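4.2 Preliminary Data

To establish feasibility before requesting continued support, the project team ran the inverse folding procedure on a target of 474 residues. The structure was first converted into the token representation described in Section 3, and no sequence information of any kind was made available to the design step. The complete token record follows.
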């Protein structure tokens, strides 16, 4: 009997998995496969934190498959060569998968689909990661959107309403399984266990994703619009790594929010605001699809004239920023949270990015690369949109003259300093008033904590002058 290869990538779940549903509908044995092919993603091969998460997520998926009488076949190497080898070993006549949207992977998958079809193999791809495909939404003139609000208005009329497919109870297995590697053999985990703190707060895998969603719907969605900006509170969903690895799908999240809203469990404004935030994720993929050069180049070509500081002039400041030693508490708290947990609150991401790109005049690409390596939710579309937004060079970007004052931001969104005290414990004994700017204490400032690496007022003016020179050059 023929069989179907089900090629898992970043869709590491069994419920709401369109490729799995299609594979089961064929009525033949299904052979789940994961192919480790990071070279195909260059120049954006997965970072260290992402690889760590992937190890745990694959382990969870393999266990979920085993419960259903199936098995995850793990291989390493170029994806097309590996798929063709598996077809030869198993007699499979179909390969199904869910789509990825990074430019390098789109090009690879296009080549793979064409090659398989030339060989007489059924090759099918599905959408498991987005509400709408990036090419399905356009302006009235057929152009891509560059502003979020009209994009969201268009997207909101096309939200999916298809039923969510539950995970199957059994997955038909072949008579013989092909050989595969163990997940450990992929060497995804770091040799030095710097990631051990991650999994005190995270549970990679589909079960962890569903539990996180349920917890957020029960305890976080009510009041979300106001609480989401306060980093010391549990007012955000923390679903981003689960969505990135496809341990849960956006349709599942949408349906859970709609049920809570329809049942009167949450105010309309909170539900709408959360869905709008998920709309930014869709917008990010829309932009990456239409402007594939933007992970490295500004969407606004005028920013080619931006007088960023040279590498030799900012190396020390960049290291201080990366290590959470800038002397600016809210920034250091965020960078230390990132190192310890692989994640950072979104409000704080904007603050630390503004300091780097505007107060320090360090090119946004340096920050994007650091986040790419350190975040468990490192997503090329979201990372690119976020950094270009703060730097002012992307779609829907913050105006060039908008420079976050980290002290004012800290006082507004972490008024009692609870977030700072958690991640910068050397400041824990300071008063609520002093903790946001300890250098103002003069000789009474805590020992061992550095003074600010930059004068916030002077550097703000330097940034405004730099933007003015760029605009004049354009």
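Position-by-position output of the design step:
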């Amino acid at each position: 009997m023929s069989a179907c290869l089900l090629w898992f990538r970043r869709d590491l779940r069994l419920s709401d998995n369109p490729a799995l549903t299609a594979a089961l509908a064929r009525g033949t044995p299904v052979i789940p496969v994961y192919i480790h092919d990071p070279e195909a993603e260059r120049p954006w091969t997965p970072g260290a934190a992402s690889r760590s998460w992937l190890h745990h997520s694959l382990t969870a998926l393999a266990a979920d498959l085993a419960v259903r009488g199936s098995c995850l076949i793990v291989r390493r190497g170029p994806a097309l060569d590996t798929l063709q080898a598996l077809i030869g070993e198993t007699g499979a006549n179909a390969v199904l998968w869910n789509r990825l949207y990074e430019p390098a992977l789109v090009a690879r998958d296009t080549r793979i689909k064409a090659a398989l079809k030339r060989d007489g193999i059924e090759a099918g791809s599905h959408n498991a990661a987005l509400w709408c495909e990036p090419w399905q939404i356009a302006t009235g003139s057929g152009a891509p959107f560059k502003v979020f609000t009209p994009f969201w208005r268009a997207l909101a009329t096309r939200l999916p309403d298809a039923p969510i497919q539950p995970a199957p109870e059994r997955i038909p297995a072949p008579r013989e399984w092909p050989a595969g590697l163990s997940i450990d053999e992929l060497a995804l985990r770091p040799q030095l266990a710097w990631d051990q703190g991650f999994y005190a707060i995270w549970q990679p895998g589909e079960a962890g994703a569903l539990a996180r969603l349920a917890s957020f719907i029960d305890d976080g969605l009510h009041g979300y619009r106001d609480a989401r900006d306060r980093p010391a509170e549990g007012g955000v969903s923390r679903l981003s790594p689960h969505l990135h690895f496809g341990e849960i799908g956006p349709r599942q999240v949408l349906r859970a929010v709609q049920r809570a809203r329809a049942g009167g469990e949450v105010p309309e404004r909170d539900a709408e605001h959360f869905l709008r935030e998920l709309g930014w994720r869709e917008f990010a993929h829309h932009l990456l699809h239409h402007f594939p050069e933007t992970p490295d180049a500004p969407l606004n070509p005028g920013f080619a004239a931006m007088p960023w500081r040279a590498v030799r002039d900012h190396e020390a400041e960049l290291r201080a920023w990366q290590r959470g030693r800038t002397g600016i508490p809210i920034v250091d708290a965020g960078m230390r949270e990132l190192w310890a947990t692989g994640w950072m609150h979104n409000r704080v991401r904007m603050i630390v990015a503004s300091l780097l790109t505007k107060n320090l005049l360090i090119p946004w690409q340096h920050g994007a690369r650091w986040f790419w390596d350190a975040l468990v939710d490192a997503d090329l579309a979201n990372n690119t949109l976020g950094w270009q937004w703060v730097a002012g060079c992307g779609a829907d970007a913050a105006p060039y003259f908008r420079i976050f004052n980290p002290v004012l931001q800290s006082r507004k969104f972490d008024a009692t300093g609870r977030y700072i005290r958690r991640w910068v414990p050397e400041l824990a004994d300071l008063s609520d008033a002093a903790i946001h700017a300890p250098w103002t204490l003069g000789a009474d400032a805590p020992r061992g904590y550095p003074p600010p690496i930059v004068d916030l007022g002077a550097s703000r003016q330097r940034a405004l002058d730099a933007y003015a020179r760029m605009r004049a050059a354009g």
